[in-house]
Design brief:
Layout: E1 2-4, H1 11-19, E2 26-30, H2 38-43, E3 51-52, H3 60-92, H4 102-109, E4 130-135, H5 141-144, H6 147-154, E5 172-177, H7 189-194, E6 197-201, H8 206-215, H9 222-232, E7 239-243, E8 254-256, E9 260-264, E10 270-274
Parallel strand pairs: 1-5, 1-6, 2-3, 2-4, 4-5
Antiparallel strand pairs: 6-7, 7-8, 8-9, 9-10
Helix pairs in contact: 3-4
Length: about 280
């Protein structure tokens, strides 16, 4: 998701509102703005070790990718331990004598409290939902030398792979920016083309509207975007929400703010559906 708006438009508030309603288990935050967003960081339960303040450190991308892979490896380890534990419980609860490597299993799972300890996993033996927010990083080295960031965006759904070939954990990405394009250190075409959702706040720049119309042109005709944008932005903190991967149950890919669908037919008439 790309969230674009000028300073004070409400980008962080809108992003936080969405994240609080998503089943995010672990969230990385990239950018020094976390200091001015302490309450938001607290509500989203971002851990201190998952905050990366130095946006000129090109190893940040590698560190985040490594953490996602660690989550996959930790789940595989926990699953294997659970199999061993269940095998031990099966032997203990049966009428068969203890055989094979049971002694090793007894030593592994026998706790100090005199009971057998079931293996634990941070996310209760399921794949965690992981996200990463890049907040106001325009002009930083992460954007200025975008090779690693482009690769992260392109392969984000394939991060956190498993040995048995099941679908990877993946990494959800949110980019908070003040403009869609920049002379240097801005959102690359790779990032814009891979975005599935946009949240656009009020802008007085015709060029910026044209840039967004171009970015979504593969999915949305320019006239349809401009018609929706003109309706959505009425008040200071209004936003146009564009969902390029809308579900069949959703009446439109456009919304004014987050609760009002904008439906436009080919005759340019408009219908509003509030949720």
């Amino acid at each position: 998701m790309i969230i674009c708006g000028k300073r004070g438009s409400g980008k962080s508030t809108a992003c936080g509102a969405i994240l609080q309603h998503l089943p995010i288990d672990r969230l990385f935050w990239v950018g020094s703005t976390w200091r001015s967003n302490r309450e938001l960081i607290k509500r989203l339960k971002v851990q201190p070790e998952d905050i990366y303040e130095d946006t000129d450190d090109l190893t940040v991308i590698d560190k985040i990718k490594a953490e996602v892979q660690k989550e996959a490896e930790d789940l595989e380890r926990a699953e294997e331990e659970l199999k061993r534990y269940n095998a031990l419980m099966k032997v203990i609860n049966s009428n068969s004598p203890l055989i094979g490597n049971t002694e090793e299993l007894l030593a592994q799972f026998y706790g100090l409290n005199g009971e057998f300890q079931k293996p634990r996993h941070r996310w209760n033996f399921r794949k965690p939902c992981i996200g990463c927010v890049f907040d106001d990083c325009l002009g930083s080295m992460i954007y200025s030398k975008p090779r690693k960031l482009n690769a992260l965006v392109t392969f984000s759904r394939h991060l956190g792979t498993f040995k048995d070939g099941r679908p990877a954990i993946g990494l959800n990405l949110w980019f908070l920016v003040q403009s869609i394009k920049a002379q240097t250190g801005g959102l690359t075409k790779v990032i814009r083309n891979n975005a599935s959702q946009y949240m656009m706040f009020k802008s007085h720049s015709v060029k910026e509207q044209e840039d967004l119309a171009e970015a979504v042109s593969g999915e949305v005709p320019a006239w349809l975007f401009l018609q929706s944008d003109g309706y959505a932005i009425q008040d200071k903190h209004d936003l146009l929400f564009i969902d390029l991967n809308k579900k069949p149950t959703q009446p439109s890919m456009f919304r004014r703010n987050l609760n009002e669908y904008i439906i436009i037919d080919q005759s340019f008439s408009m219908e509003v559906s509030k949720t």
